[in-house]
Design brief:
heterodimer; A: about 110 residues; mainly beta; seven-stranded mixed sheet; four-stranded antiparallel sheet; about 0% helix; about 55% strand; globular; B: about 110 residues; six-stranded mixed sheet; five-stranded antiparallel sheet
Chain lengths: ~110, ~110
């Protein structure tokens, strides 16, 4: 157990729907990162939060949004889902710049 | 745009062989280079390198960084079937906007 908790582990939903993925960082970590992993693209950085503030943005679609709450947990919202959004979504956390600790991921399947 | 390229993309070896995995990068505001191992699920941290020429070692795994030539290698000696995994190279960049940019990984298969 890495200390980073992601829920749910699996999610199956239909095209056009909206889902929310949740992440609780490791105790003491202020930074939360979201990554998308698909077979052909590898691990793609989506967005980073530090203590509730957005700090860095990657290739995150406009249909996707995220936030980090005062208790430091984070949510990634994916809307108007398309088949191509099917992927493994990872959350990771860190104390500061350095190595990230990853959660077990949420496998999203859009049908 | 930050870029991390790993080679080879896949590799099949026999137990006991030594393997070398390669990682080259182009990033703005480099801070560190990291190696992760990914088996079924979450990537797990192996090494973080920040200085050129200093080898980091953990058991049969070792890694070194060349900041002049912008590459790193990960060596695994006396491979075992349990080493079979995807090995990911990532580069840390930025200041307050720190992030890791990952390569696509090298899939290592170790056959008995």
């Amino acid at each position: 157990d890495s200390g980073v908790t992601q829920t749910p582990k699996h999610l199956i939903t239909a095209t056009g729907q909206r889902v929310t993925l949740r992440c609780s960082p490791r105790s003491g970590d202020l930074s939360v990162y979201w990554y998308q992993q698909s077979l052909d693209q590898g691990l793609q950085f989506l967005i980073q939060y530090y203590n509730g503030e957005e700090r860095a943005k990657g290739n995150i679609l406009e249909r996707f949004s995220a936030q980090q709450f005062p208790d430091l947990h984070s949510e990634l919202n994916l809307s108007s889902l398309e088949l191509g959004d099917s992927a493994l979504y990872f959350c990771a956390s860190s104390v500061g710049p350095g190595d990230l600790t990853f959660g077990s991921g949420t496998r999203l399947t859009v049908v | 745009e930050d870029k991390v390229v790993q080679s080879p993309l896949s590799l099949v070896v026999h137990e006991g062989d030594t393997v070398t995995l390669n990682c080259s990068y182009e990033v703005t505001n480099f801070r560190s280079l990291l190696w992760y191992k990914q088996e079924k699920k979450a990537p797990t941290f192996l090494f973080m390198l920040t200085s050129s020429g200093i080898e980091k070692k953990s058991g049969r795994l070792s890694s070194i960084l060349d900041k002049k030539e912008l590459f790193s290698i990960l060596n695994i000696t006396a491979t075992q079937t349990g080493d079979s995994a995807v090995y990911l190279c990532a580069v840390g960049s930025g200041g307050s906007n720190y992030k890791l940019t990952f390569g696509k990984g090298t899939l290592l298969t170790v056959n008995p």
